[in-house]
Amino acid sequence: MKMKKYYASSIPEAMKQVRAELGEDAVILNSKVIITKKFFGMIKKKSFEVVAGVDTIEPTLVAPAPPATKDNARLQELTNAIQAKIHQDQPQPDAVNEDTGISEELRKEIADLKSLMQSMHKKTTQAQYPDELLPFIEYLRQQELSEELITTIGDELFMYFKEASEINFSQCKLITKNLLRKKLEGLPMGGLSYERKYINVLGPTGVGKTTTIAKMAARAVLEKKKKIGFITTDTYRIAAIEQLKTYAGLLQAPVEIAYNATDFEQAIQKLSHLDLVFIDTAGRNYKEVKYVDDLQRLIKFDDQAESYLVLAMTTKEKDMVNIVDQFKQLPIEKFIFTKIDETNSIGTMVNLMIKYNKGLAYYTNGQEVPEDIEEADLEAVLNLFFQGEEK
Ligand SMILES: Nc1nc2c(ncn2[C@@H]2O[C@H](COP(=O)(O)OP(=O)(O)O)[C@@H](O)[C@H]2O)c(=O)[nH]1
Ligand SMILES: [Mg+2]
Fold first, then answer.
1. Do both 326 and 362 map to the same domain?
2. Are residues 354 and 221 in the same domain?
3. Bigger pLDDT: 115 or 274?
């Protein structure tokens, strides 16, 4: 990637310079305001510094030739060799000797030092990446993949590059997919099991719980011919009850409203003849620990139930992490990610699945019921990750 700094009195002015020099494909990598002081600080002048870059290995990026089968075999061979080497180089877990007499404090200090050294190592390796890798690393970053995963992937690509002396976008993609596949393949993927009667749908307000329930329920009725019903514990807003009732009406399914645990128990009895019961919950302030406690008291989390945590892709990852942490005392089966139509960054999905070791049931991509929902499978998630690249 070719990079250059531009200075101008306004951002549009800087953009003009960038386009004139680097062309229409240039991307802005960074920008900042610069205040210069003249006459002993009495006159302040504002200007802008813009760092822009353009891909210099564009031909391979725009039209990546699909690797020939022979290349693929070679690529796989090299990837395997690199992975074997990585495993060989990885430090083996320390043998635990209970009698070492090392205090807990010292042990913690050693652990901190170790992690500091590891993070320094990461920074050094990233700084060593050749220019050929940078657009791809930038793509991973735009996808908001965690820095930790970017370094793992980057290091592997770098080793491949050292071995093969060249690398193009489609090779990077293949190696990345292999790596992410390995990280995700142990996690449960796929929608309702249809083996458990109660489906608890949890998550904060407005993420799309009720809409997603309607989509899942419609599939259960139309495709699986199941007899279904609904219980809602979201009694704080009349509109929320009406919304569920509307969907239930379309599917000719009963709705029970549970204001308290007794109501809930009665609703369960009333709907006991059905195949599936969807439980819509209130997304009150999840930050209150009490909310999760109440939920636990109100609804059932036994072996007849499966529970899903709904998160919207429009939420910041930091906030999503807080939400998942808040729900961690509940036996969440899998995630459901909604509103993926409103983002171009899919990395968060991957980050959270790996961080919490949880699979994915569905992702939803629009407001239309019942069509805007996809059942998750590993290859679909991996393809989703590179979808932005094909746009
Ligand atoms: N763009 C988009 N909007 C969605 C999606 N799923 C739900 N919504 C919208 O998000 C808003 C809140 O949905 P709702 O089901 O009421 O959320 P709840 O409070 O969690 O039950 C509604 O306007 C939905 O139409 C989705 O996949 N994409
Ligand atoms: Mg709702």
1. yes
2. yes
3. 274
Question: 236: CA distance to ligand 1 center in Å?
Answer: 17
- Shared domain for 65 and 40, answered yes or no, is no
CA 120 to centroid of chain Cα atoms: 25
Give the position, in ligand 1's atom list, of the atom nearest the Cα of 363: 27
Atom number of ligand 1 nearest to Cα 310: 20
pLDDT of residue 68: 47
Cα 328 to ligand 1 centre (Å): 23
- What does each C-alpha distance from 248 to 129, 244, 352, 372 come to in angstroms? 55, 6, 32, 18
Last residue of some domain: 54, 70, 95?
54
Mean pLDDT over each residue of the chain, to the nearest integer: 84
Choosing from 160, 184, 208, the residue where a domain stops is 184
From the CA of 338, give the closest atom in ligand 1.
27
pLDDT of residue 13: 81
Sheet of strand 332-338, all strands in order from the earlier edge strand to the far edge = 255-257, 228-232, 276-280, 198-202, 305-312, 332-338, 359-364, 373-375
pLDDT tens string 86-97? 555 554 444 444
Predicted TM-score (pTM) of the model is 0.72
Residues having CB closer than 6 A to ligand 1 are: 203, 205-211, 283, 338-339, 341-342, 364-367, 372
Instruction: State whether 204 and 246 are in the same domain.
Output: yes
